[in-house]
Design the sequence.
């Protein structure tokens, strides 16, 4: 239990002294995970909405697959992205391996199924409410997708949040494609893994607390937005 | 109004992405070094690399994985320089044309650490072969890297010399963690198991609990590190100039002195032995 | 909302005609060979006991439900999405979008490609007509039930439909809200919009309707002028319905 006390101490010391190394890692973590979530939103939200609105053969298979992909182990995603981006891989010429871009790609792959699956569920629920009203206004499938994406915005924020939670917390994918390179691709989780393997458990746990604080902060922000939306009965 | 805020959000996301992706394409001078967890976990690189970067302006990006994976990554062309510790595998790597030439860089040694109770009574022994035999006979818990790393290769070679096949007891007293040195040490401490580690990682390791070095000092425990430039004939994107500069610097008197100067708690962790 | 838009000929949905509409669910005939023709400008009440198939029939007319047999024709052509806005629809439970009151109306107009200055002008006109100008910036979902129904109807009317179908729009509302909606409908009918109103409220039908279509057990049993219907219904089902007896 000594470690917990020391870990709290470390966490406070790191935060209070605005440790430059820590700040760099935190900023990079946020940049990468927020970028991944933004990209995953651009891909996953329309994808989920289309799945919710458009009926086509094989839709049930796609939906099942999407739900299954939510549980994809990060290591598998990391491995796949590594094989794609490796110099020996099909996208090797771009030289993206061991860069933040590679980490964004891996996290995007990881987050898209989460965002899309939650978006599909949320939008399908709203579609049952809106369907007839939009059809009598002559709105086609594409217009329906756009309308539902906008009107479900408060709930979709939760989908993005779930995606962010997954992205910021995962270590398996980014450590493979990022390489945990100091000052270049070292993020919160890979730094925690490194400090753990150095046996510096207090520092590792301290970083973990900082990660927790960030996660709580982002969630609080999103909850605030959601509550504001609920006041306007937009949720 | 909402449309405008969406557009602004997208723009911000695009800018954010741009700022992150741009460095990947920038012509900034850097090399990727595929190396082992022991060199990183011991803190050597943190001490060494800034000196090199200051002198040459070349940034060194270290990917620290097990030697086995480092060799595979380098074989795929995902690195410019290889710095590992498994001489036979390194020579094979060069022979197969993936590396230009292998140089001895530095050495340290392996030690066997274990709990103070020392159930197999190996404390104070020098010969690791005899010690492993005793551990096997006592069926005392032993944590193995199990990850095809340099340390793992060495450990397997020692078991072989001891004529013991510990993998038969895998999951019983022989426990393969499949992780890096630090993680394996954490596991060993947690389980009260013996394990073999390079001395550098052990000295720098902060979660020793009451564990001690029990076996050390035999020449069989010698741990040689080598450095290899990845062959540009295989992977033409290899940064030959910068990579060679790093190799040359490591082998130069200046680099060798920097390696010797790195100490943790007053102890020297690596001993430079590049051939003059 | 008086002069027909210039593209009227092309966009026209009237007359709306149903031919031999039959719809089965689980072996029951919910609609049984129903034919009807809606044209002109008269205010029509579609009446009948619960389960007569009124709401379902309304949805078939609006091309929301596809019948098993029979066809619906809008101005002699099969229904299509492009002309859908010309056939307005108000549901028993109004569906308002999760946006402001004003944005709800702009949305319907934008769906008909009415934007810019004309869109703004028509939006404000619709808000004023429905008495919602003061609430224009409020989120539609915080409005009372009556206000939301007024908004839904104003939204349907904003695009100047030729025909407005209403499915018991005041069923859940208090008398004041009902009165507001009735005057909204009267104004629309006066402006030339053909209205078909499904209602259970005999008083409401008496107040508004010029003609009555009576449905019973999935069939239309009579179509008559309102005065005739209320004074001397020809079918026994209608007679029982008006007398307040249970119609079986």
Sequence:
């Amino acid at each position: 239990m000594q470690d917990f006390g020391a870990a709290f101490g470390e966490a406070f010391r790191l935060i209070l002294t605005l440790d430059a190394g820590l700040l760099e890692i935190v900023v990079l973590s946020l940049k990468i995970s927020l970028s991944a979530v933004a990209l995953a939103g651009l891909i996953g939200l329309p994808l989920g909405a289309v799945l919710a609105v458009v009926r086509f053969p094989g839709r049930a298979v796609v939906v099942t697959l999407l739900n299954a992909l939510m549980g994809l182990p990060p290591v598998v995603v990391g491995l796949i992205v590594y094989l794609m981006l490796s110099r020996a891989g099909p996208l090797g010429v771009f030289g993206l391996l061991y860069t933040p871009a590679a980490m964004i790609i891996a996290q995007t792959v990881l987050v898209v199924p989460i965002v899309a699956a939650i978006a599909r569920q949320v939008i399908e629920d709203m579609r049952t409410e809106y369907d007839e009203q939009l059809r009598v206004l002559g709105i086609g499938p594409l217009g329906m997708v756009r309308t539902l994406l906008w009107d479900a915005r408060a709930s979709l924020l939760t989908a993005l949040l779930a995606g962010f939670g997954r992205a910021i917390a995962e270590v398996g994918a980014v450590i493979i494609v990022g390489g945990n390179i100091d000052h270049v691709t070292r993020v919160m989780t890979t730094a925690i893994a490194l400090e753990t393997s150095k046996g510096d458990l207090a520092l590792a746990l301290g970083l973990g607390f900082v990660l927790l604080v960030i996660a709580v902060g982002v969630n609080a922000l999103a909850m605030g937005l959601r509550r504001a939306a609920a006041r306007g009965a937009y949720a | 109004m909402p449309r405008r805020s969406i557009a602004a959000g997208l723009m911000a996301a695009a800018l954010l992405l741009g700022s992150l992706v741009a460095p990947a394409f920038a012509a900034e001078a850097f090399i990727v070094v595929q190396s082992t967890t022991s060199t990183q976990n011991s803190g050597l690189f943190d001490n060494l690399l800034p000196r090199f970067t200051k002198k040459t302006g070349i940034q060194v990006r270290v990917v620290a994985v097990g030697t086995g994976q480092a060799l595979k990554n380098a074989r795929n062309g995902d690195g410019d320089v290889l710095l590992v510790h498994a001489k036979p595998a390194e020579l094979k790597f060069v022979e197969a044309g993936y590396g230009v030439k292998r140089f001895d860089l530095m050495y340290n040694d392996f030690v066997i650490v274990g709990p103070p109770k020392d159930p197999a009574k190996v404390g104070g022994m020098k010969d690791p072969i005899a010690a492993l035999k005793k551990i096997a006979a006592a069926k005392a818990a032993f944590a193995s890297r199990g990850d095809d790393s340099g340390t793992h290769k060495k450990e397997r070679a020692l078991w072989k010399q001891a004529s013991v096949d510990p993998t038969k007891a895998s999951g019983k007293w022989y426990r393969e963690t499949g992780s890096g040195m630090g993680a394996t040490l954490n596991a060993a401490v947690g389980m009260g198991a013996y394990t073999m580690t390079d001395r550098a990682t052990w000295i720098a390791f902060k979660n020793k609990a009451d564990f001690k070095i029990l076996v050390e000092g035999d020449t069989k425990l010698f741990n040689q590190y080598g450095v290899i430039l990845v062959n540009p004939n295989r992977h033409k994107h290899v940064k030959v100039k910068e990579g060679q500069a790093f190799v040359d610097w490591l082998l130069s008197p200046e680099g060798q002195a920097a390696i010797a100067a790195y100490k943790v708690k007053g102890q020297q962790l690596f001993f430079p032995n590049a051939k003059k | 909302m008086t002069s027909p838009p210039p593209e009227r000929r092309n966009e026209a949905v009237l007359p709306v005609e149903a031919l031999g509409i039959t719809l089965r669910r689980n072996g029951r005939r919910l609609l049984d060979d129903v034919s009807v023709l809606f044209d002109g400008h008269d205010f029509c009440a579609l009446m009948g006991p619960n389960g007569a198939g009124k709401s379902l029939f309304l949805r078939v007319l609006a091309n929301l439900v596809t019948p098993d047999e029979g066809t619906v024709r809008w101005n002699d052509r099969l229904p299509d999405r492009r002309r859908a806005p010309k056939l307005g629809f108000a549901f028993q439970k109004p569906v308002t979008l999760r946006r402001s009151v004003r944005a709800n109306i702009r949305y319907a107009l934008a769906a008909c490609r009415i934007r810019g200055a004309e869109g703004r002008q028509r939006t404000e006109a619709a808000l004023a007509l429905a008495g919602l100008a003061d609430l224009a910036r409020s989120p539609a979902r915080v409005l009372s039930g009556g206000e939301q129904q007024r908004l839904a109807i104003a939204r349907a009317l904003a695009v100047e439909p030729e025909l407005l179908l209403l499915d018991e729009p005041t069923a859940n509302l208090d008398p004041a809200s009902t009165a507001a909606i009735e005057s909204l409908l009267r104004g629309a009918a006066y402006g030339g919009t053909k209205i078909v109103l499904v209602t259970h409220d005999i008083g409401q039908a008496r107040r508004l309707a010029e003609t009555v279509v009576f449905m019973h057990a999935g069939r239309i049993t009579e179509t008559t002028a309102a005065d005739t219907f209320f004074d001397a219904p020809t079918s026994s089902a209608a007679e029982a319905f008006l007398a307040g007896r249970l119609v079986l």
Chains B and C do not touch (no CB pair under 8 Å). The domain at 29-108+224-272 of chain B is CATH 3.40.190.10 (D-Maltodextrin-Binding Protein; domain 2). Residues 2-25 of chain B form the longest helix (24 residues). The mean pLDDT of chain B is 89.
